[in-house]
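[Q] Does anyone have a clean structure-token version of this?
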Amino acid sequence: MSTQQMTQGNSTSSVLGRRLGGELAKLRIAAGLTQGHAAKTLTASTTKVAKMEGGWVSMRAPDIHALCELYGVRDPHVVGGLLELARIDRERRKAKGWWDDYNMPGVMQEYVALESAATTIMAWQPAFIPGLLQTPEYVRGLREDPAAKVAKGPGPDEEFIAARLARRRRLTDEPPLSLRVVIYEAVLRNFPGGTTTARGQLEELARMADLPSVSLRIFPFSAGTHPGLVGSFNVLSFAEPGAMDVVYLEAPFIQRWVEGGETAADYAELFESIAARSLDERESVSFLQQLRKRL
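[A] Here you go.
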């Protein structure tokens, strides 16, 4: 779903709300029932049910239990996943996080809020160093490059850099965010800001790869081509990986969320296929160190 579809009047349709609503709508349709049936069970209007399925309103645990009972869904794994997603969505809607103190575009603010709630992120990046691993010099170089104005974003450079660095707290928080990253070799041979930026960023990648919460791999030129070269994507998991994943896609002038279960699973599978063809973690760190020595 595009960022333009996130607001309607004074209401906000959240990513997790849409993911949850989509799952419930799928279960309802599979049971051969209408929104009217759901409304009767909840003693609510069909309009409210439509808003629930569209992610426009948060959902309470009793409503989810009632709908699962109506739809014949009794698998505790499925019900538990829906309940957990609803809980996180409720918390995200009412929480004020550190990101509210920074000038970010709406889609990035929503992404960072979800990043703070995620348990695992699988990130494939064929063009840039992933945001959580960028050095201040790398960020500054991107923002100063006239050809990379897409990365400029709002706000002063130092404020933008401070916000970028603040995101790293999730990698050392308790419990830490589990970050699995695969970076295309081309990213490591094309640095904004020249040799100084390159040395610092390569050293930082090797250092971050040493964190228990970070798995970093390099996809070398020798591994050939694959569909992921079309663009970057991040798969965010909020409970058990695969249970309720959402995917963030980014391209010049476009950011999109993929909230459908099957499509999100396709991206998770694509990530695993990319990772399987990449250098392993030890080889990747060695690759980074060798690149730095040649600078």
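[Q] Thanks! Anything notable?
[A] Residues 89 and 179 are 21 Å apart (CA to CA).
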